[in-house]
Structures are given as C-alpha cells and as structure tokens.
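Technical note accompanying the year-one report. For the benefit of new consortium partners, we illustrate the data format agreed upon in the data management plan: each record pairs a sequence with a structure-token string. No post-processing was applied to the example shown here.
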Amino acid sequence: MTNDTTNPVLGILGIGYFASYFTSSLRNGGYQGKIYLSPRNVQTAEKISKEHHCLIAQRNQDVIDRSDIVLLSVRPEQLSDLLESLAFRNDQIVITAVAGKTIAEHYAVAKHLPQTLVRMIPVCSIEAGEGVVPIYPPNPEVEKLANFTGTPISFDSEHDFDLALTTSCMNGWLYEFFGTMTNWLQEKGLPEDKARNIILHNIRGATAYALQKEDQKLAAITNEIATEGTFTLEGLNLLKKEQGFTAWDHALEHVHKKLGE
C-alpha cells in the first residue's frame, strides 16, 4: 500500500470496455499512479497495459494486495464468482462499477468486502475528459480519482444514484440520434465530414451554452429561442405533436425499472 494520497495505487478487476476507457481517461487527465490490471482477459489487459502504462498482475489477489483502491468492473452475474475467493484489507476502498447492484447486494454476495464500498459508473465520454461520474455514497478519495476523468457528482441516497445511472444509458441513445440527423444531411447532399461536424458541434455548443446559463431553467432557454414566427418553433411544435419527447421519457422509465429488478 502506498502513502501517496495524490496518486493512490489503483487495481482493476474485470478487464473490458469500461476498464479501457476508464484507464484512458485517468491518464489523459493526469493521473500518474500505478494501475494494476486483472490477468483474466489477457489480450485486452495487454492492450490497455501498453496504451495506458498499466501493470498486469499475476492473479486477481495480487491486484488487491498491491492496491489502495480496487475497482470492480464486471457484469452483475459475474460478481459472485469474482469475489468468492478474494481477500481485502479493511483499510481499502472498493469502487464498484457493477450496474444494477446495490451496496447491500454486494455485501450479500461477499460479506468480507471492506467497509468503504462506493458505487461509481461514469459514461464513456470521460475518455474525452467530459461527462458525469456519479458516485454513491460521497467519498473524498473516490471524488479525487474521478476528477481526473470528468465531472464527479456525489449523491446522498442510492435512489438518486440510480436515477443518475439511468440517464447515463441515454448517452448511447444520443449517438443514435446524432447519427440519424447526420444521415439526413448526407441524404440531402452534404458530405459526411461536414454533416457530422455540423451536428456534433451544434450539440456541443448547445450544452456549453446551457452550462453557462446555470441559473436559468432549460425550458426557459428554449422559450427564448423558439419564439413566435421562428422555424425553431415550427419544428418544436411538430416534435411535441408527434410525441418525440414522450418516447424519451418512456425509455428512461423502462431502464429505471429494469435497474431495480
């Protein structure tokens, strides 16, 4: 265990897509601590190790023994098998990125987990240094780590954390939405590179403007732009008439329900 509180040693159990973009975001954000990877997924572990200056442990227990903070990034159905034979230190912090599993459910699977167990599931956009990193319960050390990757937002209840997790799923839907608008421009004759840049930078500009107007409700920003006689209002009214926004509410409700099952 290290005494470096600025760059604690991180160990990752479960080497897949999440581990790849999380380690990338840490390094891009300036995290210089050692990162130990589980050896289970050899090909992916070697790729992450080479690209992001990580070390591959000999076995999962070695990851834990060498780390101050241990990140669990496996699928929910894999959690029990992963933790069954592993031993943790009482002074360790365990971060879980296992979607849909409550803190209580983690301890039901493995009572030997340390006292400090924190849920955290950031979105893939952290690889670009952007995006939300939801955290529950609040923990200063986890928040410091998350600061390297994006915008940490801590929650005082698991209910609120799960709401944030639900909206994280929305990122995947947004790329489909962006792609649909890009395709429309291409079908009208715009070159692909210009179509893509127009859509993505329009979206980027809209979010940057809204973040700047933090004291103003989002709907109020729309009302300032979509005024009577504008083409913006024409399109907005059609979207509302055809329940374009209602479908998003339904999708969020569906995912939130699934997370609680």
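Partners are asked to follow this layout when depositing records. Residues 138 and 154 are 5 Å apart (CA to CA).
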